[in-house]
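Lab notebook, design round three. We kept the backbone fixed and only want residue identities now. Task for the bench partner: fill in a sequence for the structure below.
Input structure tokens:
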């Protein structure tokens, strides 16, 4: 398991005071989005700098040089589901928001078999536990509350500091729901690494860029269907609630 290079590059691009470093990060992000292996010469052209500046950039962020950085980017891009992303990439530039939403909902509907399997497991589960990233905590709590109203033993812990004790309650026959979006989710990954040693009944709900962090799962639901950098939190919340509401409706 490694920390996402893409997430680190986004922060560098948006926050780095050094303009050259911002341009280097921008070039590397373009390579990730287009599933291309970064090249040193192309990077010097993009950032208007010498090769030594790019080497200094790589070393500043924990790599021996550009070659190692390039290899790590190539490894990370192999974890992403680029096929689906490229098929729907043009949706990110459309001016018709309804078309974007319709296509996103279609992506969820096309996962019908996985949804049905999830519902079948919920019906027979002794306990259902959820751990969510901060961005979608309220929506996940709402889903758990509605499961409780239907009579299921469903639980979510809203206090990060006590999640360790929360995880100890899970056993191998329970379902665990992991909700992972945005940059602020490393603590979710940490608890997932504990849970995966206890149960195989882990259901992941995430964006394409987060999927590579969770390799041992029963099933994964991908929500975002268009360019990752363009989705708003409000849109993502709408899509997540559509998935949750669909499940509740069928229970």
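Proposed sequence:
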């Amino acid at each position: 398991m490694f920390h996402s290079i893409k997430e680190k590059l986004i922060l560098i691009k948006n926050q780095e005071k050094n303009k050259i470093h911002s341009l280097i990060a921008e070039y590397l992000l373009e390579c990730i989005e287009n599933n291309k292996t970064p090249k040193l010469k192309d990077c010097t052209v993009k950032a208007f700098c010498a090769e030594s500046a790019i080497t200094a950039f790589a070393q500043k962020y924990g790599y021996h040089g550009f070659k190692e950085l390039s290899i790590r980017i190539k490894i990370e891009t192999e974890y992403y589901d680029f096929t689906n992303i490229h098929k729907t990439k043009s949706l990110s530039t459309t001016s018709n928001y309804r078309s974007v939403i319709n296509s996103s909902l279609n992506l969820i509907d096309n996962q019908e078999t996985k949804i049905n399997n999830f519902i079948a497991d919920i019906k027979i589960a002794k306990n259902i536990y959820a751990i969510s990233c901060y961005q979608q905590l309220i929506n996940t709590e709402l889903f758990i509350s509605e499961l409780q109203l239907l009579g299921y033993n469903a639980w979510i812990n809203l206090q990060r500091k006590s999640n360790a004790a929360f995880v100890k309650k899970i056993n191998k026959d329970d379902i665990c729901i992991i909700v992972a979006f945005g940059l602020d989710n490393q603590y979710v990954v940490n608890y997932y690494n504990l849970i995966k040693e206890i149960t195989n009944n882990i259901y992941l709900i995430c964006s394409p860029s987060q999927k590579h962090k969770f390799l041992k799962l029963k099933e994964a639901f991908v929500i975002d269907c268009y360019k990752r950098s363009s989705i708003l939190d409000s849109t993502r919340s709408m899509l997540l609630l559509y998935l949750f509401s669909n499940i509740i409706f069928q229970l």
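Keep this in mind before ordering anything: The chain has twelve helices and five strands.
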